[in-house]
Design a protein that fits this description.
This protein is mostly helical. Helix content is 56%, strand content 7%. The chain has a 3-stranded antiparallel beta sheet with strand order 1-3-2.
Amino acid sequence: MRNSSITPHISSTALTAIAVAGCSPSPKPISAVELALREARALHRASKDATLLVAMPAVRRAHTAGVLAGLTLSALYRQRHLLQRKHFLRTLSVEAGFASWDAYLPVLRSRPARAIEQCATRLEFGYPNAWFSTYAQAIAFANEHGGMVVRHGHQAMVVRAESSALKAEVQHGT
């Protein structure tokens, strides 16, 4: 079985164990584009799941990004068979502050994978972290108190320094 097919299903506990053990979940470093594609694939698969608990977070992110305008959240959930991978690529683009995947792709190609903040939210950082309703508020707080800002949709959180170090270890595979 290829590692890329199981990566979206690795839990945060498993990623922590991988980081502590000092090994990488994949044999080679992945690019930021590949990381975004994996995240879109995981969201697409989750949206197709039969259970509300699994499908709704992915559907809610797509709805918030406005990928199928004119549908309410409940209507989009009932018609989630309409969602395609391109919709989740656009969702990730909108969450990162870009209008489309075409606008986001050149930026992804120029960044290392560790720079993709929204994909870092797959890890559980623990409690308490400081959550903010806007990215700008989180930046101001981080500048004053330290920590790393992680964007999550339109909101953001500031992660403590020790959580930032763990996240970096997991993303580097060290």
